[in-house]
Amino acid sequence: MRDITKPATDGGSSGWDDVGGLNDIRNAIKEMIELPSRFPNVFAQAPLRMRSNVLLYGPPGCGKTHIVGAVVAACSLRFISVKGPELLNKYIGASEQAVRDIFSKAAAAAPCLLFFDEFDSIAPKRGHDNTGVTDRVVNQFLTELDGVEVLTGVFVFAATSRPDLLDAALLRPGRLDRLLFCDFPSQQERLDILKVLSRKLPMASDVDLERVSHMTEEFSGADLQALLSDAQLEAVHELLDSKNGGSTNGEMPVITSAVLKSIASKA
Ligand code: ATP
User: Fold this and answer.
1) CA spacing 20 to 30 A to 191: which of 19, 28, 144, 145?
2) Are 210 and 49 in contact (CB under 8 A)?
3) 19 Cα nearest atom in ligand 1
4) AAA+ ATPase domain location, by residue (predicted)?
């Protein structure tokens, strides 16, 4: 469990600027979290319970976990992050208690974002587990989620690439009822992601990210990250080769257009 009981300024995401594309998701989350903190009095007078729980779903590598880091940083929230399998393995025999404890911890740390990654592994459909452990865990989740709302200052986010495996009761109104789909990025989104990820990378002036974004159809954000990382390694080799074993004198490895295009076309 990653537990940050002070606002996240730990060198992770620096906020929305680190996210390329995903504009609809970003706007939905901003409205849900930022509005109530800017206008708490108005929300205190709103009689209907406001939704504060989100399920992010979509193919692997498409930014579900990444956007959570950005939310935490942008909204200065405390952050408790739990990976699904970790919760079941670490607390064998006491998993429901662990769920209770995590929600209490989040309430004590409010304003806090409580994040369950790989949620399908802890909250699968009930009735299929001979030991009954996951069924009890799901029941506990239902109880805890019923107690969470905007005014408690706890935002529960969960992520999965297999929403079809989740117990349907978790997705009923009032629980994880804001469903946000992180799909493969469009060409424009790939360009945005490439710009964000390459912000700190030395690039030759001939690099045309727009061209790369057209060459990388069906790439996820994680694939684009891997592409840049491979290009950077290639640039390191080129620099070392050009020095023939001699000193690089602090020269930076620069990514060239040729390298980037060659790696993109092979992927
Ligand atoms: P999984 O289902 O496998 O957990 P995921 O959807 O949670 O995948 P992330 O871990 O969020 O995927 O993304 C992997 C990496 O890809 C991130 O660390 C980031 O570097 C990059 N990335 C993905 N999407 C984006 C994006 N929209 N903007 C910037 N970087 C992104």
Assistant:
1) 28
2) no
3) 28
4) 50-186
